[in-house]
Amino acid sequence: MNLLQVREMMLFTAEKMVESEPELTALDQVIGDGDHGIGMKRGFAAIIVLLQNPNFNAIDIGDLFNQIGTKLMTSMGGASGAIFGTFFRAGGKSIAGTTDFNAETLSKLLNDGWQAVYQRGNAKPGDKTMVDALAAAAKTATELTSAKLTDALPKIVESAMQGAENTAQMIAVFGRAKNLGERSIGHKDPGSVSMAFILKYMNDYLQTA
Amino acid sequence: MRKPKKLLNDLNNVRHEVMQGLVYAYNGKLTAITDYCAVYGNHIQADQVVIISGGGSGHEPTFAGFVGQGGIDGCALGEVFTSPSPDQIIEVTRAIEKGKGVLFLYGNYSGDGMNFDISAEILAEENIVSKTIRATDDIASAPLSKIADRRGVAGIMFLYKIAGAAAQLEKYNLDDLYRVVNKANTYVRTIGVALDGCALPQSTNFNFELAADELEIGIGIHGEAGLRRQAMTSSDDIVEEMIDRLCADLPFNNNDRVCVLINNLGALSNTELLIITRKVGIELDRRGMISHDVVVGHYCTSLEMSGFSISLFKLDDELQHLYDLPCHTLGWRK
Hints:
The structure holds 2 protein chains of 2 kinds.
Chain A: H1 3-19, H2 21-31, H3 36-52, H4 61-76, H5 78-94, H6 103-121, H7 131-143, H8 149-166, H9 190-208
Helix pairs in contact in A: 1-3, 1-9, 2-3, 2-9, 3-4, 4-5, 5-6, 6-7, 7-8, 7-9, 8-9
Chain B: H1 14-26, E1 30-33, E2 38-41, E3 50-57, E4 68-69, E5 74-80, H2 86-96, E6 102-107, H3 110-124, E7 130-135, H4 156-169, H5 174-186, E8 188-196, E9 214-217, E10 228-231, H6 235-249, E11 257-264, H7 270-286, E12 290-297, E13 306-314, H8 317-323, E14 328-329
Parallel strand pairs in B: 3-5, 3-6, 6-7, 11-12
Antiparallel strand pairs in B: 1-2, 2-5, 4-14, 8-9, 8-13, 9-10, 11-13
Helix pairs in contact in B: 2-3, 4-5, 6-7
């Protein structure tokens, strides 16, 4: 994919994330304080404005993701803004100079983004956070770096969705859900669902483009 | 089921309208950085370390209502119950920092921690030196052995008081300011009780519900689950248990000088609050503790939550001197 195609993919993803707000809100009302969907909507609505602006300019694909991360960080606030912003900023920086987005660059974006998220928030796989979806996606991406992006991304999405699904069995150790302790079992982490959704919508665009 | 009822305007503009209300109420003593939803006081002097706080809206007058002489210097306002973003924190810091450094002082929540840490890292690249203290006064949020995991709640206003007096009036440098506020943080303890939940502006439901004959001990200021739910009982019974828990935690002892905060979380009647206050006095007297100052009212709210919290702050000579200096903020004048 070239820069223009990635930009269109991320615009489509942002629109779908805004549409997902009620579903994410419903998940967070059970386990958090109900603001996750609203925050994601605020962030991705800002991404739509950013990417639709005719004056928007990204030097390369890495810069595009970096700018998306910066916009998420500054428009969302909260833990989600810091985490998703850090993911895209660090992931974008790790593929600076990229002009062709493929399975290898996606793997680097996911893995380096994951490491940066870990350094920011200290969440490990199993802690019932977005890292459970991200880590699962990054591990699958690492195994598929030589595949075509159209073949790799569906499998990465599958891993991320499974990673999000698995959070239902975990006890929360971060954020407001932490205080629920074992009462958090049975409910998916909304952040992990958001992470999986982002990849899912990227793939939806890729498969129809 | 009862539904939330709120008198608001644009749901996407809540924090900005709160900021505009603050600016009018401060009547010339507060400047807004409108595009970044941040504020700072007009009292700041060139030779002081600045104190910057921030946090989600919904707790008014916490956090921004404590900007002023003898209080904090600047504040970033997040969306309701959502931490501010780094650009807000960075802009208010750039606007007021005087080359003496900045103390970031806020409640211990993961979102606030990450956004302030990102800000501190970016500001360090601009040679702005900062130190960070996260208020951890809520004893119900984690055991004493994990005190660094505890959340910050109403007791943060005592830290603001000490920090403001030390930085603005006694001109502590950044290292000394950090030391004294850190000490104060270890001397503050809070516990809350809720009779009913609260609702985010965008939400059609309360964030938690209690039965008509139920209350919750140890509630957080965003409705975080407390220690337990139990049947309604008398005010005196609840206050006695809260004071027991607070005193056992630090611990507070016979002859300790303490400042006491009896805080309305939102919708409890002031009638009930004074009946609670009466019992707090009885319990502290019975333990031989000296009530140096007693503060009663709305200081750290949780939207329309019905409930209250009790905070105790132990003084030593240095803290008492700083505490007794005046402060002029919207939330607290002394």
